[in-house]
Write the structure tokens for this entry.
Amino acid sequence: MRLLLILLCAVAAVTVPVDLFAGAWTQDEGGYYVKLTANSLSTTRERDTDGNEADLFSEQEELRDGKFVDVNFSVYAEYGLFRHLTLIGSIPFKYLRSERTEFEIINNEVSSNGTLLEESTVGVGDLKAGLRYDLRTLPLFSLLGERTPLALEGGVKIPFGYEEAPPDGGPPLGNGDVDSDISILLGRSLWPLPLYFTGNYGFRNRGGDFHDEVFFGGEVGYSKGKWLLKVSVDGVENRIDDAELKRDEDSFETVVGDQDFLHLTPGFAYEVGPDTYFTADLIEVISGKQTLEGRTFSIGVAYTR
């Protein structure tokens, strides 16, 4: 039961390049939850603007054997400023690498000899910060009770000193713009059954030339002894019309641009010591448009008080 309650307070899963999804519960005043994760994605595939699987760079005849690697280490934290108000923050340190073989086109035919191109980028990505407020403090929602949290969350994404266009042409660490979002979160503990669910639905205003998004997520978890098993879904639906969802062939739109996606994430947490947990997740792309295809492996350590 203790493990279930702690994980209910901060259900977190890292996605690439997608955001952290947190549960609807707020921290007690002075309480905290910190999770350190290592995440790895290596793929040669993507979802094109029609949602079909394709090889990376397949829309460019002169490029073959594309590969993209994203290895990042992320810190996610929650801190209870007051009983019903929680401060949230996250920041990743990334290693990104893009590979492809470039061929010359001579007389409208692709030559047989290609040149391997490799570019990499290392650095800190976007800082994300926000606040989660427990709506049960309002008379309208006060009857929901301890086992049914309802919260309002707002946040911003801020570029953290990286170059929007790396000088060597490597993958960008972010789009260089400030985004803001707001969402509603709902949860439910089914105790005495060791089960819970939590979900969110929100709107993100994207800066720069990118289009706004609707985002959503949900998770179901089961606790037994020191183990917690869970499965979650999360997704983004861009507000741009499908007919306008086009890619600049010289950019990394599948990393930072307009895109749709749906992820399925099974995972578990295991209590390895007092207030300390080992976590593991497998993030699978179920569908999407203009997004990377592949599996992200994630392991982490979580601390709470």
